[in-house]
Write a structure and sequence with these properties.
- 43% of the residues lie in helices and 30% in strands.
- By secondary structure, it is an alpha+beta fold.
- It folds into two domains: 12-21 and 80-153, Roll (PH-domain like); 25-74.
- The strands form two sheets. It has a four-stranded antiparallel beta sheet. Strands 5-6-7 form a three-stranded antiparallel beta sheet.
- A hairpin with a 2-residue loop joins strand 2 (80-84) and strand 3.
- Helix 2 (26-42) runs antiparallel to helix 3.
- The protein is elongated, with a radius of gyration of 21 Å.
- The model has no long low-confidence stretch (mean pLDDT 92).
């Protein structure tokens, strides 16, 4: 059960639910790709003893890549961004939890930052500025313009 379903007030409507973009797995995917390249390259080595060493290194890199993928998956699963008609809720963490909530009436500005790559892949950073305080930058958010539109319309 999602965190935000537990904290919604009576008659509060969810306008948008955001999540982290799949690109947070980029480091893990690069490590797994490097392990695959080493593994394939080990079959083309002419020395008889070298392929075993290369395969051991490839296996080590693959294990590190899998652990990195697991960590980024947990981070992605444990992050919720919810826009309701009354507030913005940002929650991260599974075992320990960090939550930030801001009333929509207290929001002064919503900025979206996207590089060229981010625009092509559909993610970005959302900065929410409120009266007296800001929510920490929400980085690598999938479809940030939809989240911004929900905040501004709310």
């Amino acid at each position: 059960m999602a965190y935000y379903t537990k904290v919604l007030q009576p008659d509060e409507k969810v306008l948008a639910v955001g999540r982290l973009h799949w690109s947070i797995h980029r480091h893990a995917l690069l490590l797994l790709l490097a392990a695959l390249v080493l593994l394939v390259g080990s079959f083309w080595t002419p020395q008889p003893d070298v392929p075993t060493g290369i395969r051991i290194v490839a296996a080590g890199i693959a294990v590190i890549g899998l652990l990195a993928f697991l960590a980024s998956s947990i981070r992605r699963r444990g992050t919720e961004i919810v826009v309701t008609d009354r507030r913005v809720i940002y929650k991260r963490g599974i075992l320990s939890r960090h939550t930030v909530e801001m009333n929509v009436s207290k929001i002064e500005a919503v900025d979206v930052e996207q590089s060229l790559t981010a625009r092509l892949l559909g993610y970005g950073t959302i900065n929410i500025h409120g009266t007296g305080a800001d929510i920490e930058p929400l980085q690598r958010i999938d479809q940030p313009l939809a989240i911004r539109s929900a905040i501004v319309a709310g």
